[in-house]
Structure formats: C-alpha cells, structure tokens
Amino acid sequence: MSVFNITSVFFREYLPGVVYVNAPRRVCAEDCEASCVAVRQSLNTRGVMVCEPDIDPSILIHRDPRAWEELLGWRCVEAFLEGARGVGVGDLQSLVDYSFGAPSTMWILLAGVEFEGECAPLWEDYVRRRRVGMGARTPFPRVEVGAELDVDIRISPAYMLLPFHDVKRSWQRNAPTLLRHIPEIPTALDPHYYISMAFPPQLRGLAERGYVWVANTKSRGRRNHALAEWLYWLDHARMPHIDVALGRFVPRSPLDKVIKYAEGASAGCRQNKRRLNCLHSAR
Amino acid sequence: MTTEVLTNVEAVRRWLAERGAVWTERWGPPPRGIYALRDMHPPSHAEEACRQGLPLVYIAAVDRSGLYYIFGDVAWTPQLEKICRAVTFVVETEPLRDGLNAIVKFVARTRHLPWVSFRPEVLRLAGICDEVRIECEPREVWKKMVETAKSKNKNKTETASGGRTAPEAEEAGGGSPEGSEEDGAKSANDLGNVGGASVRVLHAEVRRDHGDGGGVLGGGARGGLDPAAVAAVLRAVERCLGREAVERLTACLYV
Fold this sequence. Notes:
The complex is a heterodimer of chains A (about 280) and B (about 260).
Chain A (H helix, E strand, L loop, with lengths): L7 H7 L5 E2 L12 H8 L7 E3 L13 H20 L7 H10 L4 H4 L3 E3 L4 H10 L38 H7 L1 H6 L9 H8 L2 H4 L6 H6 L1 E2 L2 E2 L1 H12 L3 H6 L38
Parallel strand pairs in A: 2-3
Antiparallel strand pairs in A: 4-5
Helix pairs in contact in A: 3-4
Chain B lengths: L8 H10 L4 E5 L6 E2 L8 H8 L4 E7 L5 E4 L6 H6 L2 E7 L3 H16 L8 H6 L2 H4 L7 H22 L5 H6 L9 H15 L3 H14 L14 H15 L1 H12 L1
Parallel strand pairs in B: 2-4, 3-5
Antiparallel strand pairs in B: 1-5, 3-4
Helix pairs in contact in B: 7-9, 9-10, 9-11, 11-12
C-alpha cells in the first residue's frame, strides 16, 4: 500500500493554485473500529482533538504512565496517541517511552491537539509557539545549608522539550556547566540515557546529600533548584514537582523528608510562580 | 552541470510516481512549516540556478494535523520571489513515519547529504534513528567512537603489516583481511569506524538500497572496494578537507 494519500478536501482548502493533481480520493477508513470510538469522544465539534491537562508539558519527560493517566486523563492520552500514531505509537506505555526518548519531537506530534483548562496556556505555548519555561518547576523548601557550589545550571530538564538547535544559545547562557560536559543535548534521542552517562559524576554525587540540600546550595547568589531537578530526573526518570504533587517524591536523605504533600493539589500549571501549596518551608 | 540546489522537477516527479505516491504539484513557494534540513543554503546559493531559469524544488510533506515538513535546499525568503521560481510538491504522508522516511532517504540520496544535515527531530520522526542510531547521537559520541576506532584500526593495521606503520601498510595496499565471511564482516565494520560514525550508515544504506531496488554500489562494502584503501582515502579526505567532506563523500558513495 502506498504510504502517501491525499484527500480532495485538502486540495480545496490549502492549494488554490494546484496545477497538477494525482489524487484518488481516500477519506475515512472503513476499518475504523473500537479505538475510533474513544478518539471520537476526544473530538470537539470541529473535529479537533481536545485535551484538558492538569499538569504542565514537563510531564512529557516524566516516565510514569500512571502519572500520565492521573494528571492528563484518558481524553488527553487518546488525543496524544492519535497524534503519535503515525510514528508507530500504539498505547500509553509506548507513548510515554517515545515522549521520554524524544521530547523535542512532541510539539510536532501534538500539533493537532487543542487544549483547555487551567494548564492550557502552557501547552499552547509549547505546541504552537515552541516556548517552554526555562527555570525549575519544583519549589524546594528553603533551608539554610551554607554551601556554595561552582555550578551554573539554571535550566530545568523540561527545557529539553524544545529542539536543542533552536535554543542552543539559551543553553549556552544558562547552563554552561552542563554544556561543558555535554556540548550537544540530544533532545530527540534518549537524552536521559546520554546525559546519565555524561553528567559530571561529582555533581551526580551531590544527590547523596539530598535534593533539598542541593536545591538550597548557592551559586553566584542563586539557589540551585534546577540542578536539584536534574539530579532527581536523572535518578528516577521523573520530574520531581510531579512526583511531589502525586505524593511519590523519593527522598534521598533525611533532609528531603521536609517535603510534604498537599492533598489533591494541582500539580504544576504554576510552574514559574513557585508557590505550590504542597511544599512548605522547613523553617 | 550539477547545481547547488535541488532544481530537477522531473526527477522528483518520476520518483513520486515510482513510489506510487499521491501528490500535488504547484508553482510557488512552499507553505510555512518545519524545514527538514538543519542548515539551509543562503539565498545567494540559489541565484545561479535562478538565473539559468531553473526552478527551486521543494517537497512539502504534510501530516494529518496539517503540519508541513519542508524539504528544500534554500529557506524561502521574500527576496527570492523577484528572481526565482519555485515549485512545491505537496505530499500527504500517512503514516507519518513511513512517508517521511521515504522522502528523507530520497533527498539524502539525490542531494548526497549525510544524515547529520537533517534536523534530529525529523530524523527521529522518520524512524531513521531506529535504523541507523549512531547518526542521531550527539557529535561527542561520534568523536569518541571515531577516536576509539582509529586507535583500534591503527593497532590492527600495524599488526597486519608486520610492524610497518599505518601509512606504509596503506601504500602497500595491505591490511585487508581475507578469509571467512566473519572476517569480511569485521573488516567492513572496521572500515566504517575509520571513516567515522557514518560507516554504520553505510551498512544500513546498502540494505535499504537493495530494498529500494537501486543502490549505487549494489554490493556495498562487501563488494569490490578494498576496505583498507577506502579507509586510507577517507582518512586523507578528513585530513585535507575536513570531517564534513568525509560525511559528504560517504553519503555520496553509499547512499
């Protein structure tokens, strides 16, 4: 079977200047079965896939299908699956794996999805305008640890949702320490695998003192929240703010236990405001 | 004469027809979308072709969501409108991966482009990274592999030539293992490593070309070329002309 097809609707709407057409009409598949029913439920009146996520797009690098179910819901999952079907993704697990392995391709695959709800602006920014917040999402509690690190990483792992080559200068300016060891972040090919191998071991070792400790160390007057996020993400392949929201944060040291969970808190639409109710100051 | 940019309308038309593709063809610049090539030629590269009256050819693959993936050598700019004609082949890809895969391979073959010329996202979506993973890896990985392979190859050549230095062995045409099938495969791998990471493409490409029914070399690395000689040439090309030239040469030979 040919891998190409085209519909006459397409010609009418998009190609007014067509001079040559070789297009047998092939519209709806007769084999549209049960899976299509679920898809239809996700369509709005204009036939566009609609999704109402309860989380910011950084869930796309959160390798936990349960979290996807809980925070995105099946309506979103179906919409995402529909978008990714063309690249061989067939179920939630493979969708999570694909997204985790190629986060910077997701804005392309989700181009046909429409977003609603509180988190919609963040998704619209990502999918339509290719904009993602650079900073850390997890508002780690403030603790005076009195340590200073010679590290300059102010970019969250979530920034890998954008193609590296499109935002290379941001990486160079805001994560020079990381780029010294990993000059090219492979945002489209298993970044977790590669970064785990190349991440400076002396920085990985800091995690033993706890993510909260790392987050509260300072570099040039700033707290290292982003570094703590990287360490957590490398250790668990999950984003810490999502784990916190779902009560699944894995402490690495006694100090990490100061993180408390909020009952039913919204996970992370407020990624840049750092005021999640679920986290409390340890002081 | 080969032009700097894709101008052969008939070649694209013929290929689409051969693939059994369904497409539309229209005169005009490509729609807005994602350019599939990482580094496009500047518009000045198109001027010569335009002066000769040749059109700039674009292939616009469109997916179900209406997103266009544009394959062309020059990013279209308004300044080109005055001097250039453009023809755009709009092809709907379904499923996306297979459609993109076919177009990426066609463009790579006809333009003699190494995979690194394409955006990693497009390669990933096209499934190229599953076929030739190394091509999607970061350059740092390449460098390490090339260095490791070079040192391995050096040791091997020295051993094979009985203590002669590598250049001497190359001049004598030695170092090419003969014998079992296994040895042959091994030497093919070594060849690849010498030429850089793109070698692995070489094998994958050869398989693909058979599938497509039209590889340039047919037998590929296992064919008539002496791996040691090719390795020597690739080394010389890298030394004299740089890494980019090696990539282009391997792509040209084996894609």
